[in-house]
Amino acid sequence: MDQQRLDIFDLKRIKINKSKAELEQAGKQLQKEVSSEELSTFVPVHRDPVAAIEQTEAKMIPELLPLRHQRMLASRFAFFRGTAELMEQDLKRQHQSNMPIVICGDAHVNNFGFYASPERKLLFGLNDFDEARIGNWESDLKRLLVSIELAGEENGFDKDDLHKLLELTTKTYRHAIKNANKLPLSAVFYYSFEIHDMIDNIHKLGDGEAPEQMEKVLQNIIKKSQHSNSEEIIRKMGTINDRGQLIFRDNPPRAKHLSDEEHQAVVDGYEQYRENVRQDIKVYLANFHITDIIRYSVGVGSFGTRCFLILLTGIDGSHLVLQVKEAMPLRYNLLSLKVQQAIDNGLIAGRRIVTAQRVLQSTSDPFLASTKFGDRSYYVRQFRDMKESIKIDKLDFDSYQLYCQTCAFCLAMSHAQSPTSPMLRGYLRHQKLLDEGLTDWALRYTDQVDRDYQAFKKHIEK
Questions:
Q1: 207/314 same-domain check
Q2: Which of 323, 358, 382 is the C-terminal boundary of a domain?
Q3: Which stretch of DSSP H or E encloses residue 346?
Q4: Which residues form a coiled coil (predicted)?
Q5: Coil/strand/helix, residue 371
Q6: 212, 69: one domain
Q7: Range of the domain at 130
Q8: Is 387 inside any structural domain?
Q9: Residue 143 in 3-state DSSP?
Q10: Which distant-in-sequence residues (6+ apart) come within 8 Å of 204 by Cβ?
Q11: Which pLDDT tens digit goes with each residue over 105-132?
């Protein structure tokens, strides 16, 4: 069993020597073994949420934990975002479809957003892969549904409206899987969700007109994304030191410069990263040299992990900012692994995340690659290059509904990249009852999140 945990991203598990028709039939058989009713049945969980959180945080930077807790206590949804380990632990106790699919592992509504293709088109899709693994499709969908409920309640939306939205989200996911299954393999592989196609794709699902507010939001994102680049980052975060050099501005504890030893470790990691990137990127990076490095923490769940920004200056004086982000061992098995197994798991985490991102995103950052230094695994990518997100707390209900449907559609298209996805189509065929069943499951789990949040809040306020 322990070896299975270490091999949870063994891509051989999704290489099944069967035809599409045979895979669909296998999915139908799984439906008989684990029915939709079982998959929708909430199995109560009994564990100490605070102990699990503390075990995860034991691997993080101590001085950042107070800020991390502050972010988590902002709301139940913020707490949910910061504690993926709790739901991962709980999903193991639920009925599972046992269908190997490359999944995101943390597909909540704030982990979707816009990013640039190499052709500088603005695409929408999943944008966080730290928990990616080969797992059960319903784990992603259940996490998406719970996040929709939590964020929707936070927005003050009507309970009945949210209930219908949860059902519609599962319906959208099912229909998208059905549509993807009709496409040739090449069409699925090359599929991209460009911003101008975003509304049209939802319309194809037959779910009504796009609200006016969403149109305005998308137009604003298009404008903002044109200014989201390394030069803008330097304008906001840079300063000139007493030697006249351009460096990052300190803002401890979130942003701070490193000791000489830490600085050199990151430099060594960068050199190894350059050996792992595509050859054209390796040649391009030869135009740049390192100007500065800073530790810079981001997010909620990732806040407290090791994350650095590298400022590169080109031979023409232009700049490139790369983010070096610690790749943690999967929280899915972190709480149950022995120390040495967790270390072994962690040393390959960067490669796992990079591979998953390339599979689940329609196109990925060309600078994306993994590295290692200081006995830890990392992945490297451009920092904020045309990356934008929709502020869901600013949406009216109609726009929120459209956004959630879009997330469900993108999630299904990401799952369709796995060779085993016809099994998913076979399992979901004629399973409308999942729409209501998974909604009930999500509402039950939302109550669990509330109990965990209150327990954590009580612990911190002691």
A1: no
A2: 382
A3: helix 339-347
A4: 13-40
A5: strand
A6: yes
A7: 2-226+393-460
A8: no
A9: helix
A10: none
A11: 999 999 998 887 777 788 888 989 989 9
Check the CA dihedral 75-80-82-86 and report its sign.
positive
Q: What does the longest C-alpha to C-alpha distance in the chain come to?
A: 71
For residues 170 and 210, state if they share a domain: yes
Same domain, residue pair 196 and 234? no
Classified as helix, coil or strand, 122 is strand
Where do runs of H (alpha helix) occur along 116-225? 137-154, 159-182, 185-189, 198-204, 212-225
Domain count, the chain: 2
DSSP 154-176: HTT--HHHHHHHHHHHHHHHHHH
- The Cα-based distances of 343 to 129, 317, 327, 349, 355 in angstroms read 19, 40, 11, 10, 19
Give dist(CA 242, CA 257) in Å, integer. 15
Residues 41 and 187 in one domain: yes
pTM: 0.90
Of 52, 404, 349, 395, nearest in space to 214 by CA: 395
Dihedral sign from CA coordinates of 358, 28, 437, 171: positive
Q: Which among 92, 182, 82 is positioned nearest to 133, based on CA atoms?
A: 92
Q: What is the pLDDT of residues 214-271, one digit of tens each?
A: 777 777 777 766 666 778 888 888 888 888 889 899 988 889 999 999 999 999 999 9
Asked whether residue 425 falls in the same domain as residue 308, the answer is no
